[in-house]
Amino acid sequence: MFYFYAMPYILADDGITYTNVEPLKVDSKTYPGIKISYAAEVGESPEDEYIMYYDAETNKMTWLGYTVTYFTKEKSKDWHFIKYTNWQMVNEMLLPKTLEWYNADGFIIGDKRNDLLFTDVILSKNKLEDTVFAKPEAAVSK
Protein backbone atom coordinates (compact mmCIF):
# COMPACT_ATOMS: atom_id res chain seq x y z
CA MET A 1 0.00 0.00 0.00
CA PHE A 2 2.97 2.34 0.37
CA TYR A 3 2.96 3.04 -3.37
CA PHE A 4 -0.59 4.42 -3.26
CA TYR A 5 -0.07 6.04 0.15
CA ALA A 6 2.93 8.06 -1.03
CA MET A 7 1.58 8.61 -4.55
CA PRO A 8 1.75 12.42 -4.46
CA TYR A 9 5.52 12.13 -3.96
CA ILE A 10 6.08 9.22 -6.35
CA LEU A 11 4.63 11.12 -9.29
CA ALA A 12 7.90 13.02 -9.74
CA ASP A 13 10.02 10.11 -11.01
CA ASP A 14 12.22 10.39 -14.11
CA GLY A 15 10.61 9.29 -17.37
CA ILE A 16 7.12 10.62 -16.55
CA THR A 17 4.99 12.51 -19.05
CA TYR A 18 2.34 14.88 -17.66
CA THR A 19 -0.79 15.82 -19.62
CA ASN A 20 -3.80 17.88 -18.56
CA VAL A 21 -7.05 15.93 -18.98
CA GLU A 22 -10.76 16.52 -18.65
CA PRO A 23 -11.83 17.17 -15.05
CA LEU A 24 -13.47 14.45 -12.98
CA LYS A 25 -16.99 15.24 -11.79
CA VAL A 26 -18.09 13.64 -8.54
CA ASP A 27 -21.44 14.65 -7.11
CA SER A 28 -21.53 18.41 -7.63
CA LYS A 29 -17.77 19.02 -7.53
CA THR A 30 -15.28 19.15 -10.41
CA TYR A 31 -11.62 18.12 -9.98
CA PRO A 32 -8.96 19.17 -12.53
CA GLY A 33 -6.80 16.26 -13.67
CA ILE A 34 -3.23 15.54 -14.71
CA LYS A 35 -2.49 12.28 -16.51
CA ILE A 36 0.77 10.55 -15.71
CA SER A 37 2.26 8.11 -18.20
CA TYR A 38 5.72 6.63 -18.57
CA ALA A 39 8.32 6.35 -21.28
CA ALA A 40 8.97 2.82 -22.56
CA GLU A 41 11.22 0.75 -20.29
CA VAL A 42 10.61 3.01 -17.27
CA GLY A 43 9.75 1.10 -14.10
CA GLU A 44 8.19 -2.33 -13.71
CA SER A 45 4.97 -1.47 -15.58
CA PRO A 46 5.50 1.43 -17.99
CA GLU A 47 2.10 0.70 -19.56
CA ASP A 48 0.34 1.75 -16.33
CA GLU A 49 -1.42 5.09 -16.41
CA TYR A 50 -2.47 7.36 -13.57
CA ILE A 51 -4.62 10.44 -13.39
CA MET A 52 -4.23 12.64 -10.36
CA TYR A 53 -7.31 14.77 -9.70
CA TYR A 54 -6.95 17.62 -7.24
CA ASP A 55 -9.11 20.08 -5.36
CA ALA A 56 -8.73 23.41 -7.20
CA GLU A 57 -9.26 25.35 -3.95
CA THR A 58 -6.67 23.54 -1.80
CA ASN A 59 -4.45 22.01 -4.54
CA LYS A 60 -4.51 18.74 -2.56
CA MET A 61 -4.73 15.48 -4.45
CA THR A 62 -8.25 14.16 -3.95
CA TRP A 63 -8.72 11.33 -6.45
CA LEU A 64 -6.39 8.94 -8.19
CA GLY A 65 -7.49 7.06 -11.28
CA TYR A 66 -5.21 4.20 -12.31
CA THR A 67 -4.96 1.23 -14.64
CA VAL A 68 -3.25 -2.06 -13.89
CA THR A 69 -1.08 -3.72 -16.52
CA TYR A 70 1.46 -5.57 -14.39
CA PHE A 71 0.25 -9.05 -15.33
CA THR A 72 -0.63 -8.49 -19.01
CA LYS A 73 1.96 -5.82 -19.92
CA GLU A 74 -0.70 -4.29 -22.20
CA LYS A 75 -2.49 -0.94 -21.92
CA SER A 76 -5.80 -1.17 -20.06
CA LYS A 77 -8.99 0.85 -20.37
CA ASP A 78 -10.21 -0.42 -16.98
CA TRP A 79 -9.85 2.51 -14.55
CA HIS A 80 -9.87 2.15 -10.76
CA PHE A 81 -10.35 5.05 -8.33
CA ILE A 82 -9.02 5.95 -4.89
CA LYS A 83 -10.12 8.99 -2.90
CA TYR A 84 -7.49 10.61 -0.66
CA THR A 85 -9.04 12.09 2.49
CA ASN A 86 -8.21 13.39 5.94
CA TRP A 87 -4.75 14.70 5.12
CA GLN A 88 -2.41 14.87 8.12
CA MET A 89 0.93 16.53 8.76
CA VAL A 90 3.64 14.04 9.76
CA ASN A 91 7.13 15.44 10.41
CA GLU A 92 6.47 18.36 8.05
CA MET A 93 5.09 16.11 5.29
CA LEU A 94 1.46 16.12 4.26
CA LEU A 95 0.17 12.53 4.00
CA PRO A 96 -3.31 11.04 3.67
CA LYS A 97 -4.89 9.46 6.71
CA THR A 98 -7.48 7.56 4.69
CA LEU A 99 -7.54 5.98 1.24
CA GLU A 100 -11.00 5.06 -0.02
CA TRP A 101 -11.47 2.69 -2.99
CA TYR A 102 -14.56 3.23 -5.15
CA ASN A 103 -16.35 1.20 -7.78
CA ALA A 104 -16.44 2.98 -11.13
CA ASP A 105 -17.96 2.62 -14.56
CA GLY A 106 -15.38 4.29 -16.78
CA PHE A 107 -14.95 7.71 -15.22
CA ILE A 108 -18.28 7.64 -13.36
CA ILE A 109 -17.57 7.11 -9.66
CA GLY A 110 -19.92 4.67 -7.94
CA ASP A 111 -20.21 3.31 -4.40
CA LYS A 112 -17.35 3.09 -1.95
CA ARG A 113 -15.89 -0.44 -1.83
CA ASN A 114 -13.56 -0.19 1.14
CA ASP A 115 -11.17 2.13 2.90
CA LEU A 116 -7.78 1.95 4.51
CA LEU A 117 -6.89 4.03 7.57
CA PHE A 118 -3.27 4.88 8.34
CA THR A 119 -2.61 5.32 12.05
CA ASP A 120 0.52 5.84 14.14
CA VAL A 121 2.46 7.05 11.09
CA ILE A 122 6.13 7.68 11.82
CA LEU A 123 8.66 9.28 9.49
CA SER A 124 12.35 9.43 10.29
CA LYS A 125 15.31 11.13 8.68
CA ASN A 126 17.59 8.36 9.96
CA LYS A 127 18.86 6.02 7.25
CA LEU A 128 17.96 2.38 7.82
CA GLU A 129 20.59 -0.31 7.51
CA ASP A 130 20.53 -2.22 4.20
CA THR A 131 19.84 -5.42 6.16
CA VAL A 132 16.34 -4.12 6.93
CA PHE A 133 15.51 -4.58 3.23
CA ALA A 134 17.30 -7.89 2.74
CA LYS A 135 15.31 -10.93 1.68
CA PRO A 136 14.95 -13.34 4.63
CA GLU A 137 16.81 -16.63 4.10
CA ALA A 138 13.58 -18.66 4.37
CA ALA A 139 11.69 -16.52 1.82
CA VAL A 140 10.71 -18.11 -1.49
CA SER A 141 10.39 -16.20 -4.76
CA LYS A 142 7.51 -17.01 -7.09
Task: Characterise this structure.
The chain has a 7-stranded antiparallel β-sheet, with no helix packed on it. By secondary structure, the protein is mostly beta strands. It is built from 2 helices and 7 strands. It is globular. The protein has helices at 2-5, 7-10; strands spanning 16-26, 29-38, 50-54, 61-66, 80-90, 93-105, 108-117. The longest helix has 4 residues, at 2-5. The mean pLDDT is 86.
What topology does this entry show?
Layout: H1 2-5, H2 7-10, E1 16-26, E2 29-38, E3 50-54, E4 61-66, E5 80-90, E6 93-105, E7 108-117
Antiparallel strand pairs: 1-2, 2-3, 3-4, 4-5, 5-6, 6-7
Sheet-strand content, in percent, reads: over 45%
For the report, how would you describe the main beta sheet?
A: 7 strands, antiparallel
In terms of per-residue confidence, which ranges show pLDDT below 50 for 5 or more consecutive residues?
none
SS content category: mainly beta
Radius of gyration using CA atoms only: 17 Å
Give the helix tally.
Answer: 2
Taken from the alpha-carbon principal axes, the silhouette is globular
Distance between the termini: 20 Å
Spatial strand arrangement across the major sheet: 1-2-3-4-5-6-7
Outline of this structure?
It contains two helices and seven strands; from the N terminus they run ααβββββββ. It has helices spanning 2-5, 7-10; strands spanning 16-26, 29-38, 50-54, 61-66, 80-90, 93-105, 108-117. A hairpin with a 2-residue loop joins strand 5 (80-90) and strand 6.
